[in-house]
Structure formats: structure tokens, C-alpha cells
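User: Hi! Is it possible to get a structure for several chains at once, not just one? Here's what I have:
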Amino acid sequence: MTSNTSTNETDFDLWLEAGRTERHYWRDLWRFRELFYVLSWRDISVRYKQTVIGVAWALIRPLLTMLIMTIIFSRVAKLPSEGTAPYALMVFAAMLPWQFFAAGLASAADSLVTNANLISKVYFPRLIVPVAAIVTAFIDFLLSFVIMLAMMAFYQFWPGMRILALPAFVLLAILTALGPGLLLTALTVRYRDFKHVLPFLVQFGIYVSPVGFSTSLIPEQWRLLYSLNPMVGVIDGFRWCLLNGEAPLYMPGFLLSTGVTLFFCVAGVCYFRKTERSFADVI
Amino acid sequence: MSSSVAITVENLSKLYMLKHQTNSSGNGLRHVLQDSLKSPFRKKHTPHQGDKEEFWALRDVSFDIKQGEVVGIIGRNGAGKSTLLKVLSRIIEPSKGRVGINGRIASLLEVGTGFHPELTGRENIFLNGAILGMSRSEIRSKFDEIVAFAEVEKFLDTPVKRYSSGMYVRLAFAVAAHLEPEILVVDEVLAVGDVEFQKKCLGKMQDVVRMGRTILFVSHNLTAIKSLCTTAVYLSSGRNLFQGPVEKALDLYMKNSAHVRHTTDRDKNASMKIWIRSCQPEKMAFTCSETKAIQFTIQAKESCHDVVSAVILVHDQNSVCVAQCDSRWVGLRFGPFHAPGSTHAVLNLSTPWLKPGSYRVTLYLETIHGFCDQLDDACSFEVVGPYPTEFENGESISRRALVLSDFHFVEETNAQ
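Assistant: Yes, the chains can be modeled jointly so their relative placement is included. Here is the combined structure:
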């Protein structure tokens, strides 16, 4: 019972010490993968409980937004589409990643605070929570994709072989939501101000990003600067895949956008990991 | 030797910075921005003088726990028990010192962590199980057992938001009770549900003990600690006062006089003329039948012509109010206060006799104009067994009442 016997490092499976918890982090992340499935599943199955039309909401929202955007930008403002692609298709090809980004970012940013009871009562790698939140948004994305296919059939517009590259751009979209999502959720734990920043950011973003119009409308000399917005790269990528080459990819801009995305991802993970240890203390 | 040690705690300390509400302190972004604008070259985390105070929730706590040992952790509210469990459960990080753990650890700091009201009982079993660290196959193999233990077979496919609070708690505990880690950390979860279910939980804990698991157990229910644990750690103000046999630890704990709860933080409230300054039981633990004395101080900031009456409510651990003591009923009023000052008073509660458990005291002050001051959870005290007489059988009948009463039977000779 007395601890005068000098204890060896190797005598114990696990040492808890200030600044030490990191060691098994990535291994723990793998060990807790089942919790990750369960949390994602919980968020998905709760999402449309006690609604009458249920999952249909996931379809109605992007459809209506697309409709309004098409009417305003194409009919009222008379903006040109990408080549010969129907305007509605061009808008929807951008709505797909945009809706995913907005929903993913919002639910990831909120995730730690809404799961505060878990954070303060159980141990698990906290990274699971925001990532599981993004998975929820991803389900809506898949549903929207069905609409995209239906619309393509309606317009008799076939995307061609480029669609095979889509998974890569989907991954890019996930990373684009993940980086800022991690950053915002970790910041929200300490500063609830960011809860108020977010809706504004998302609302603002849909007009700043080329959702309702084509990137080719941006004057050549500004395009690189415009690409600092990571969603520009993602949206251009989606259009390139889905619009059968009617929307050529502006490479320098795309690389810059991807770079910004990766920067946010690394920054997000680093900041998250750095502050994670004190989450339970401040939440 | 050391292979038989399940947990070693070495000089464990946990520091919190308390922030006092002054004009510039706060945790909002505004304050950080403001502060960095005011003095951009100061290092970011330098504590400002005067508006932050160090608080050691744990200080140099050291002990070892052997494999298979059942350890109770006792101490008053705020002694650091929950902080200790949170560090051991890896929820918070120690500030100093270290902890070594051997074996799979699972902690149960709350019943029903992560339960989602919209999900059904069945779904919540899987959700809660995963949160507590069980694998899906493990939950599936114990599913029937969990359902039987919780007695909710009929309502498995009903969302738990429609459950009665009793059913909810039973289901939550049932999941937790079927955890099978090598080390189990339990915080105060036995104080849930009705008395029958509490007994069932205690029985389940005893089963776990018999299986030879290492258990750390925090409870205010000293009777439960006494019956479950072999050794105990006694914490006071974040320090480890004693570790050893459970009887000795309990003795020491009960002998220790209660601390005063000062309400100095409320002194700044300008609108209050009269308020409760302190409230404390005479002892931390009483026996069932002895008179329980509760001392309190009423403070008047300025002269006040109104007289004040005091109402003390005593709640048991299920928040049932078991006693109400209104000073007006016994014709006592405090004041008037002709000058700023304080009045000290003692409430002697002789009946009803209270059953073993922990009790919380709420104190109100009222004037003829109405409500004056209120202190919820003004203090708490324990009542420890044994009952005036230990019952061998018929426990469930004897446990039905909320309180005990002083009574006597008179045997009258049968005049036949």
C-alpha cells in the first residue's frame, strides 16, 4: 500500500501525466472506432425523428435553393452558364459541395458543445465528435446526389468519364469542411462567440463562393486571389467532373484552393489536439 | 510485487484558475481581444494580478491500489473526489504528478451518459454501451440480461423520452452494471431510483466485487461504502488525509468537524439588506436518533426595521423534503436590526429521526414583505446507521418509510 517501492515506467500499461496523454492518441482513435460509428448513427437516426416528411427535407432544401439561385442569376441577372450546360445543372453541381460544406461545418462547429455531457463524463479521443458530425452531413450529400442524377436525366446531359474523378473531389470537400470545422469547434468550447460567427460566415459564403454563377465570370487578374476561398477549388472541381468538360479547371487557382484547404486541415488538427486536453475543464 | 498494483497515484495535483468578476476579466473572446489590445506585448497566459486565484482541487495525492481491492473515496463536497475520478478516467489532465494504470479501465461517473431522448430503449442500450467502452458484440451478448435487469421489456421500442424517470434510470444503470472492465470507477450512481432498485444495484456491485475486480467508489452513502469497500481514501481540501481500512477512514471522517460555508461571494450584492452569511451542521454525520443541530448566521448590512423569519428545509438524497422548520411556528423572529451586524442561531432538529443517507439543507429568510434571501444547498450532512435496531429480516418492509419516528408501544395486560 505504501508507494516507497520505486515504480518502473514499464510496470503500467498507461501513464497519465501533464502533457503526456498524447502518446496513444492515434491508437486510441482506432480503438474507439466503434464509438465513432455509433455517434454518427445516432446523429443520423435522430435527425429526422418526429418529422412528417422525414428525409425528404434533405432533398427539398437544396432543390429550392437551386431554384431560387437559377431564377435570380440566370433569368433576372442574365448571367451565362458554363458552355452549353443548363444553368440549373451548373448551380446544382455547386450546391452539392456547398450544402455539404455548410451543413458539415455547422454541425462540426456545434458538435463539442452539444455533446458537452459526454466530454465531461467519459474519455475518448475528442476528434471523434466533430468527425462524426461531418458524416451526418455527408448522408444528406449522398441524398442530394440522387437529385443531381435525376436532373441530369431530365436535361439529357451526361457527365462522361470525368465523373470517375468525383470521389477525389468529394474527399477534398470533406477536408474543406473538416479543417475549419475542427478549428471552430475547439474555439467554441472556450469562446462561445464563434457560435454567432458561424451562421454569418455560412450565409456570407454562399454569395462569395461561385455557387450561383460561374467562376469564369471573375476577371482573369483576380482569379488567383479569388481562389484563396477554398470552396472555389471544390466547386470548380465538382463542375469539371459533372458538366462534361464544359467547365475547364483553372489549375493555378485549384491548386491554391487545395493548398488553403490543407493548411486549414493541418491547423485545425493541431489546434484541436493542443486544446483538447483542457476541453473538459472549460466546456 | 508491482504487478499486483492496479493503480498508482504519485503526487497528483490538479490546479484550476479561479477568475473573479472584475471589470476586465472574463472568458469571452471580447476579453481576450481587449486584453491583447491593451497590452499587446504581454505574454498571453500571464495571469492578471488580482483577478485570478489559484485553486488546487487536488494536491499531492499519492496512493496505490492493489488488484482486486475495493476502495471507497470519502470526503466532504468539494474535497476533490470527483476531480480525482475524472483524472483517473482520463477526462481531465493532471497539472502535476502522475497516475499509472494497469488494465482496462471503465468509468461510470453518471448514469445514462449520452442517452438520447429521441432514441428507443433498444437503441440507447447500444449507444450507451458504446460510450462506456463496450464493443457491439459484447453488448449483443448481454442484451437480454440488461433488459431483464432493467425490467423494461415492454418498452424496448419506445423512445426513452416517454419513459418514467424510474424506468430511464433503471435502463441506464442496467447497461452500466454489465460493463466488465478490469478496473471500475464509480461516482455516486447508486443514489438513483427507488429504494428497491438501489438495493438491486448494491447487490450487483457486490457481485462485481466478488468477481475480483478492482473498484474505486465514491459515494455519500457511507453505509454503502462500509458494506462494499475494504479500504478507503479520505480526501479533504484536495489532500489525501488517510488511506487504509474502511472503518478507520470512516471514523476519522465522522470525527472531523464540519466546515462553514461562507457566502462571502454574495456580499457584493448591493440590493440585499439582509442575507444568510453562513450555514453549517454541527457535525458532518449524525446517527439516526440524535438531535441534528444546524447553525446559521444572518447578516444585516444596514439597519432594518423588519423582523426576519427563517425557514429550514431538509431534503433527502431523492430531493424529497422530509422536514420543514419555520421559525414563525415556534414564535421566533430575528431582528429588527438597528445597526449593521449579524445574528447567530442554531436549529435543533430532534424529530423525525432520519434514515441513513445524505441530507441537504435549504435555508430561506422572509420578512413580512415576502421573500428575502434563499440559500439552496446551504449545507449537507450525513446520517449513518446503524438503525436503532438492526433488522435481520423483512428489510423491504422496514425500508418503506421516508423517515423514522420516535415511538413506543405499551403492552397492556390482557384482562380476561
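The first helix of chain A runs from residue 25 to 31. Strands of chain A lie at 14-17.

User: Great, thank you!
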